[in-house]
């Protein structure tokens, strides 16, 4: 390659002797589309929806502009809109009418999530309806399991998670998605589903769910902030990748059909490790704080939709390799 002499200030007088010019592949949108290595389709995405009891208002969640507390009818309308846009899966989170120490509202067959599952499946049978399985939205203390001496009792929590999962499956969920991070929950849920003759219902396990400040807006949305302590005795230490692989391995052994990494963008190395080590579908949860960060940008020059798209491309790339 020849370099233009420093004294030459005219940009067009001499052409560098370059045989290889990667920019040829970027000259037009048609060419860029032709050679694009990663494509994000609406079908690749799962749309999370918050469902509240019918006596509550349909309100926007302050920390997540554009995200609402939906009553069952709005959850159905939103699912229809999503389906028309090409989305083929929704993931439901529920806010019950009342909370108690063991989260018993979560297996009420007429609870908001159960009712929404039924209503969405009735209206859009083709939609894959997933339901988040955890107790934190349903317990008065806000932790993901039963409390014993200021800590979550792992083994006492398992049958409750199983009960909740079976209840969602009976309402018509295609997948249940345990997000609690208890040891052995996937096996407990798999056994309970099979015993209830619902072996066709799948499990998408939040396998590597890291304790994170990125969940703040979600807690406001799900009204699930812990009343004491934090979740670090069950959610993972953000410093650990090998431990994340161990968690995934256990979930795979216990019968998970998909594994998940959460949060997503700050854990691309974990997503990559998941893809390289396991053959199951890997999901990446782009969480509330990641969404809120994009939405919080007030810079008029920042194209939020474009930034969301580029975030999704990054994630899709990690999931493919
Ligand atoms: Zn939880």
Describe this structure in words.
The structure is a single chain. The protein is of the alpha/beta class. It has one domain (40-320): Alpha-Beta Barrel (TIM Barrel), CATH 3.20.20.70. 36% of the residues lie in helices and 13% in strands. The protein contains 10 helices and 10 strands. It has helices at residues 29-35, 72-84, 112-123, 154-171, 185-195, 216-222, 242-254, 268-277, 288-296, 304-320; strands spanning 47-51, 69-70, 89-94, 128-133, 147-148, 151-152, 175-178, 202-209, 258-262, 282-284. The radius of gyration is 23 Å and the shape is globular. 40% of the residues are buried. The mean pLDDT is 92. The chain binds zinc ion (ZN). The site of zinc ion has 5 residues, from loops.
Which descriptors would you attach to this protein?
321 residues, alpha/beta, TIM Barrel, two-stranded antiparallel sheet, 10 helices, 36% helix, binds zinc ion
């Amino acid at each position: 390659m020849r370099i233009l002499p420093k004294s030459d200030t005219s940009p067009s007088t001499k052409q560098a002797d370059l045989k290889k010019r990667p920019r040829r592949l970027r000259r037009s949108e048609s060419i860029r589309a032709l050679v694009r290595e990663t494509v994000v389709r609406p079908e690749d995405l799962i749309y999370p929806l918050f469902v509240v009891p019918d006596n509550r208002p349909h309100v926007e969640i302050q920390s997540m502009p554009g995200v609402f507390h939906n009553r069952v009818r709005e959850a159905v309308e939103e699912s229809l809109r999503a389906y028309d846009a090409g989305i083929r899966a929704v993931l439901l989170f529920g806010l019950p009418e009342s909370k108690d120490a063991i989260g018993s509202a979560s297996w009420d067959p007429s609870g908001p999530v159960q009712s929404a599952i039924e209503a969405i499946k009735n209206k859009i049978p083709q939609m894959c309806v997933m339901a988040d399985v955890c107790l934190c939205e349903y317990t008065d203390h806000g932790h993901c399991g039963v409390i014993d001496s200021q800590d979550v009792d792992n083994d006492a929590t398992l049958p409750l998670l199983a009960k909740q999962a079976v209840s969602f499956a009976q309402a018509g969920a295609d997948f249940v998605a345990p997000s609690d991070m208890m040891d052995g929950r996937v096996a407990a849920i798999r056994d309970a589903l099979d015993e209830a003759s619902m072996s066709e219902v799948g499990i998408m396990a939040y396998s590597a769910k890291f304790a994170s400040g990125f969940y703040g807006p979600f807690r406001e949305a799900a009204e699930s902030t812990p009343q004491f302590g934090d979740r670090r005795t069950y959610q993972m230490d953000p410093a650990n990748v090998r431990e994340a692989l161990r968690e995934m391995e256990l979930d795979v052994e216990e019968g998970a059909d998909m594994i998940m990494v959460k949060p997503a963008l700050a854990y691309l190395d974990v997503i990559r490790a998941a893809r390289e080590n396991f053959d199951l579908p890997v999901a990446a949860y782009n969480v509330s704080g990641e969404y809120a960060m994009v939405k919080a940008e007030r810079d008029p020059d920042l194209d939020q939709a474009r930034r969301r798209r580029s975030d999704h491309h990054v994630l899709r790339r990690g999931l493919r390799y």
